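Class prep. Sample record?

___
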Amino acid sequence: MYSRKRQLPEIKDGIKPITKLSQRFMVDKGVLEFIARAANISERDIVLEIGGGLGSLTQVILQHNPCKLIVVEKDARLYAILRQKFTGQSNVHVILGDILEYTPPLSLTKVVSNPPYHIISSLLTKMLEWPFKVAVLTVQREIGYRLVSKPGTKSYGRLSVLYRLGHDIELLRAVPARCFYPKPKVSSVVVRIARTRELNLNYGEFSMFLKQLFAHRRKKLKNSLRSIGLKRQELEHLLKAIKGDKLCERVDKLSPNELLEIYEEYKKAAKKELT
C-alpha cells in the first residue's frame, strides 16, 4: 500500500503555479518517496532533477545521499526559493535555466523528476543524448504507453522506437490527479527507463526521420518513403537497398530494429547522392 498522505506545498511571497508552464507540484509524500526509491540512488550517483519547484522531491532525493544533485529550474521565483532552501547543502547545485538548452555533465548517472508535461516529448528526445543510466519520471499516461508500445498497436510511434532501442522501460505505477496541486486534467504514471546499450546514432536526425515516416503510419513503407521529400536518385538507391518484404509492410508494423536498419540505408543513399 502506498501512503495517501498529501502535503500542500508551501507557497511563499504569493507564488502560485503557472499553468502555461505545466507547473503542478507533487503533494503526495508517498509517491515522492516511491519515485526516489525506484531510482535506487547511491552515494556514487550524480542525479539530475528537472524543474525543482518548491523542493519537495529534492528533499526526498537528498535523503538517499547522492554524490551530487543538480536541479535545473526555469522559473526565477522558484529558483530563488530552491537556492534559499538548500543553501549549505554542499552536494546540491541549483541552476536557473531551460532544461531543453542544458547539457548535463558526462558523469551524470540518474535522472529523477516530475518534469513539466508541456515539454515532455521534446525532453524525452533530448534525454537520448544524455549519459544517464537510469531515469525515473512522472509523465502523462499517454506518453508512458507510447514508450512501451509494440509494433502494430495504436500508441506505437516515434518515441516507442527511440526508447525501445537500447532501453528497458517499465510503467511502475499510476499517479492519481489528487497527488498534484493543482490537479492535472490527464492521468499520470511513473516510468523507469534503464539504458541497456549505447548506440552510435544522431538521435536528432533519426527522430526527424521517424517523425516523417509515422506521419504516414498506415501506408506501406515504399509509399511512405515517397512522401518524405527524398530526391529521385536517393529514393531509387534506398528502395533497392531495403531487403525482404519490408517495402510492402505498413510503417507502424515495423520493429524498432527494422526502422533503424532502414534509417541507416537512408543515410547511405543520401551519401551516394552527394558523390
Remarks:
- The chain has ten helices and nine strands.
- The longest strand covers residues 167-175.
- Residues 203-274 form a domain with the Helicase, Ruva Protein; domain 3 fold (CATH 1.10.8).
